[in-house]
From TrEMBL:
Limits of the Helicase C-terminal domain: 688-837
UniProt keyword terms in alphabetical order: Cell cycle, Cell division, Hydrolase, Meiosis, Mitosis
Protein name according to UniProt: DNA repair and recombination protein RAD54-like
Keyword Cell cycle on entry: yes
Source taxon at top rank: Eukaryota
Region (Disordered): 24-61
Biased composition (Basic and acidic residues): 24-35
Gene3D superfamilies, sorted: P-loop containing nucleotide triphosphate hydrolases, SWI2/SNF2 ATPases, N-terminal domain, Tandem AAA-ATPase domain
Compositionally biased spans, kind Polar residues: 36-57
Length: 948
């Protein structure tokens, strides 16, 4: 719509118009009619009327074009707010008209949201924030400027669609060429003009298909002011006959247009198709995948057979020939599926392999009956990016006739990680105009229905469980379950709820697929590929029993051979749907990581209490403590190791704790020195946080221990942040963001291993102390990985504290030395005391045996290592048969008194005096590049033993 102009502007335009007329006449050499613009009068104006009319039309057209030229930006918007932590409410488009300046904001459904006519055109660039129609907006990338816009339209109209080209196209197709399909205006946004010119040239050389599909939103034709869209759809256009068919999401025909104006087929155009209005969102058959125009579908038998395009993106494996009949029953042309160039540039080699593997699994290339897989890479290898790349590629297209494989993807994650997923989607896919909708809190699933073309829905497991019926109303094509070991128990409600959604492709992401036993592993497999291993009884008798039996030291050769055979078989099956790479793959991309295991001698008070507790336990049968369970004594011993005062701070004291409490000094007389580990941490905080200003993470499995550590920080005047089970999701994310920012002065992050171990990124710190350890090594391993991640710029130091000569050292040995009883045993013990018998009698007596001397390191003794404890001359006289404990021989062993050089070189900034007194041994990982933490190698071995 044209706006009225001010009189002075009109005058200027008139003069300009006349100047142009003069110029035109000059050009034509018609000197008779040459009229000076300054001497124009009615008569002369009259004499040149015809030509003037002709030129007026041209000028008017030009003006009109200029007038209509638009710059279009992708944008995000929110209601105006004074909140400190602002989030965006939605996506939109800002259409900027240049003359007169006018910016129109539309939401992602195309609904008008507001106008602003007062802005400085020069300011409009990516990242610029402004207010339009009462909404705050931020400009994202520019989609096209006026010239590009028209160039593209022209390109569409002239280069793409003329019949001459179609003839060429057919000829090209006969030759079996791979054509590079044109790119949509959106895709063009990052390209230089010259690239586009080349592209145009290519298009003229190569040719096109006759049918194009566009993703659209549609609504009934309406005159309402505030229009909304009724749904998603597809608009198929046959360019030969200019016939377009509009279909809804289910493929039902909604309308037909017999005379489609091909130059109107531009993203953002609103067209009338029958009685429906549509807006074109994107071209389905865009630059990827490339269409192979062949009379018969061509089947690629190897990657080499596929021509690499000029983008040099990375091409995913082709469908296997032997399954092609099942996978592509309608015999559609087979297309090369290419990961977008931008993502391909970002992916690391192991990630490209991962994406290819995931693709083969979810496409049924491994086995057409199954579409699920487990990505079991260790922590920090970029599982998220691999899954998002897979989803992005399949949301854009697929191998059979270019049809999209996915339309909507559900991501289930622990509540603490939903925001993280949203951030990752934005980080990697925002440039591709793909966004995520996080359900939960104020964001109900109902509001998603208005944004149905947002392809990712992210929900926490808890939310999914309580709203499963609502999720059933939506059709998802792929499910990604982050930290998928949550699904390790088949009978849980969440597994049932997710199954009810009937999502055909399922991907589990977990760094720890085998946590405790093979049954859990079976459950994960059964979830992603139901039936692939038969029912549990079959699995149990065929795999689990022989493998378990072979663990027994007295197992016969026959039993061991059978187990080896079954293990191989299980490995072969699982290789088709599970991929696991170890952390060392990341070594080349990250700074160095030093790991230390610090064995400390318990304080006198700790020694006294440990002895007392064990004595009471061993004598229990003759005393009132006869009902004392192993679990109760384990809990108490662990508390003593953390700090004796924790024994007293219990809500439900039992006879044992009451008895021990009586032996404690008054709480005002106790201090950090009563716990060897706490005293070590105190020295550590003084030297690293206070003196060097380095941020560090303190991890514990117990809330009360975290309270105690927080008390220590307060005492030392060190500002800290905290994340445990009681921290709300919003607070978690805020605390993490705060801690990682340079501007925040918190030096310590207190982290509960169980509540916050997974997925968190705490790269603000370069040191991490694991204050206590868990039976389940996976939990410790998760926590350790929080600071050695992408984005970390400094060398990382990780300290594991182990109280020597008592239960902590036993737990540690158990983690490293043999298949532990793990969480489930402890858990079962709570539910059913008889299950504690899963500990062998020897296990139990070893666990609770009294220690006479706490001044030496049992673990080092067990290694039979005769090193001098100076980190050199590591020799093992007799290597134990236990391969897990042999993992410790990759570490250097240092014995107190420590060489000052060692302490300086390895940044162990603790005063020597203290170290001589309490710190018995330090094990340091020999080669940082190996990154083979005890825990990781332990897990790998567990996996190896069973399945790898
Ligand atoms: N190719 C890459 N280039 C740059 N950064 C990357 C790359 N791949 C992953 N990252 C970043 O590395 C970090 C870790 O990735 P991610 O969280 O996906 O790892 P993960 O394997 O899921 O680990 P965890 O199991 O601990 O969550 C993220 O911040 C991610 O953005």
């Amino acid at each position: 719509m044209r706006r009225s102009c001010a009189p002075s502007m009109l005058k200027e335009r008139e003069i300009e118009k006349r100047r142009k007329i003069d110029k035109l006449f000059e050009k034509e050499g018609d000197s008779d009619d040459k009229v000076s613009s300054t001497t124009l009068n009615e008569q002369s104006w009259g004499t040149s009327r015809n030509r003037s009319t002709q030129f007026e039309e041209q000028t008017a057209k030009e003006n009109n074009d200029t007038f209509n030229s638009k710059i279009i930006f992708n944008a995000v918007w929110r209601e105006m707010t004074k909140k400190k932590h602002k989030t965006w409410d939605g996506d939109g488009l800002l259409e900027v008209q240049l003359n007169p300046p006018r910016a129109v904001l539309k939401d992602s459904t195309g609904r008008y949201m507001g106008t602003n006519a007062k802005f400085e055109i020069n300011n409009l660039e990516e990242g610029y924030q402004m207010v339009v129609g009462g909404k705050e907006i931020e400009l994202l990338e520019q989609i096209t400027d006026g010239n590009q816009y028209f160039a593209i339209r022209k390109q569409y109209a002239e280069n793409r669609w003329n019949s001459e080209e179609k003839v060429q196209s057919k000829e090209a197709s006969k030759k079996g060429k791979i054509t590079t399909l044109f790119q949509t205006p959106y895709n063009l946004k990052h390209e230089k003009l010259e690239d586009r010119n080349n592209e145009t040239k290519n298009v003229q050389e190569n040719k096109l298909t006759e049918k194009l599909s566009f993703n659209v939103v549609w609504r009934e034709k309406t005159t309402k002011k505030n229009k909304t869209w009724n749904g998603d759809g597809v608009f198929d256009v046959n360019s030969d006959v200019k016939r377009g068919v509009l279909k809804d999401e289910k493929g039902q025909e909604l309308g037909i247009e017999e005379n489609v104006n091909l130059s109107d087929l531009v993203i953002g155009s609103i067209l009338l198709i029958g009685d429906k209005e549509i807006e074109i969102l994107e071209v389905v058959t865009s630059n990827q995948p490339q269409i192979l125009i062949e009379e018969k579908p061509k089947i690629f038998t190897s990657r080499e057979n596929m021509r690499i395009t000029k983008t040099d993106g990375f091409i995913l494996p082709c469908p296997p020939e032997n399954y092609i009949g099942i996978l592509n029953p309608t015999n559609l042309p087979i297309l090369a599926v290419e990961v977008s160039y931008r993502l391909a540039q970002l992916l690391r080699p192991h990630q490209k392999d991962g994406v290819s593997f995931l693709y083969e699994c979810v496409m049924g290339f491994q086995n057409p009956k199954y579409r699920g897989c487990i990505l079991a890479d260790e922590m920090g290898l970029g599982k998220t990016l691999q899954c998002l790349t897979l989803a992005h590629t399949l949301l854009k297209g697929g191998p059979y006739g270019g049809e999209r494989v996915l339309h909507r993807v559900l991501i289930a994650a622990p509540s603490s990680l939903t925001r993280n997923w949203e951030n990752e989607v934005n980080k990697w896919l925002k440039c591709e105009r793909m966004y995520a909708f996080v359900v939960g809190g104020k964001h109900k699933l109902g509001s998603y229905f208005k944004q149905q073309h947002v392809p990712f829905v992210i929900a926490s497991y808890e939310f999914l469980l309580s709203n499963v019926a609502e999720f059933q109303c939506l059709k998802f094509d792929m499910l990604i379950c982050d930290e998928g070991h949550r699904l390790k128990n088949e009978s849980t409600k969440i597994v049932a709820a997710l199954r009810e959604l009937n999502i055909p492709r399922r991907v589990i992401i977990t760094g720890t697929p085998v946590q405790n036993d093979l049954r859990e592993f079976y459950s994960l497999i059964e979830f992603v590929n139901p039936g692939i291993l038969g029912n549990y009884e079959e699995f149990h008798s065929h795999f689990e029993i022989p493998l378990q039996q072979s663990q027994c030291p007295e197992a016969s050769t026959e039993v061991k051979n059978l187990a080896a055979e079954r293990s191989k078989e299980l490995k072969q099956i699982s290789e088709t749907f599970m991929l696991r790479r170890l952390q060392n793959v990341n070594g080349q991309y990250l700074p160095k990581k030093y790991e230390y295991i610090c064995f400390v001698q318990p304080s006198e008070l700790q020694q006294f209490l440990l002895q007392k507790a064990l004595h009471l336990y061993t004598q229990r049968k003759e005393t009132i403590l006869k009902d004392l369970t192993p679990l109760q004594i384990i809990t108490v011993l662990k508390k003593i190791c953390n700090h004796p005062s924790l024994v007293a701070r219990t809500k439900t004291p039992n006879l044992l704790t009451r008895t021990l409490e009586r032996c404690l000094p008054d709480c005002t007389e106790m201090g950090p020195f009563d716990s060897a580990k706490l005293e070590l941490v105190q020295h550590f905080l003084i030297s690293s946080a206070i003196q060097s200003g380095e941020k560090c993470v303190l991890v514990s499995n117990h809330t009360k221990t975290l309270n105690m550590l927080q008390g220590l920080c307060d005492f030392l005047n060190i500002k800290c942040l905290r994340l445990d089970g009681s921290t709300s999701v919003g607070e978690r994310n805020d605390n993490v963001e705060k801690f990682n920012s340079d501007s925040d002065d918190s030096l310590v992050f207190l982290l509960s291993a169980k509540a916050g171990g997974v997925g968190l990124n705490l790269i603000g710190a370069s040191r991490l102390v694991l204050f206590d350890n868990d039976w389940n090594p996976a939990i410790d391993a998760q926590a350790i990985s929080r600071i050695w991640r992408d984005g970390q710029t400094r060398d990382v130091h990780i300290y594991r504290l182990v109280t020597a000569g008592c239960i902590e050292e036993k737990i540690f040995q158990r983690q490293t030395a043999k298949l532990s009883l793990g969480d489930c045993v402890i858990q079962n013990a709570v539910e059913n005391n008889e299950n504690i018998m899963k500990f062998t009698a020897e296990d139990l007596s070893n666990l609770f045996c009294l220690q006479e001397d706490y001044s030496f390191c049992q673990t080092h003794e067990n290694l039979n290592c005769n090193c001098n404890g100076d980190g050199e001359n590591l020799t093992l006289e007799t290597k134990t048969n236990n391969h897990n404990i042999n993992a410790l021989t990759n570490w250097k062993h240092y014995k107190s008194p420590f060489d000052t050089n060692f302490l300086e070189v390895f940044s162990f900034l603790i005063s020597n005096v203290y170290i001589y007194k309490t710190l018995l041994y330090i094990f340091r990982l020999l080669a940082w590049k190996m990154q083979a933490t005890i825990l990781c190698s332990y897990l790998a071995l567990r996996l190896n033993r069973f399945i790898l």
